[in-house]
Write a structure and sequence with these properties.
This protein has one domain: Rossmann fold, CATH 3.40.50.620. The protein is 43% helix and 22% strand.
């Protein structure tokens, strides 16, 4: 939270086909309660995948840091379907702060 409080702006990106902003707005409200200048953005998931949508948003917003959860699945599942965490580690042009 200390990093987010000091940031010029915090963009919370939800990648989804749905337009329900309930969860997104809850996260933004929580961050604002802790004095972070947060706004929420919904990105439609593309054929390229969730990681690409987030990386593209980071590029558009000229982000210096991506903060994300890092969730692991079985090696077989990630080999077959890919994984957001692996894509961030392999291809992110900006620093990533991840927590598992």
């Amino acid at each position: 939270m200390p990093l987010l409080k000091r940031a010029e702006m915090v963009k919370v990106v939800q990648v989804s086909h749905a337009v329900d902003r309930t969860e997104l707005d809850d996260v933004v409200a929580h961050l604002r309660l802790h004095s972070a200048d947060a706004t929420g953005v919904i990105k439609v998931e593309t054929v390229a995948g969730t990681a690409d949508a987030i990386l593209k948003a980071a590029e558009v917003f000229e982000a210096d840091l991506i903060v994300s959860g890092a969730f692991g699945f079985s090696r077989l599942r990630e080999w077959f379907f890919g994984g957001v965490t692996r894509n961030f580690l392999d291809r992110s042009p900006v620093c990533c702060l991840m927590s598992h």
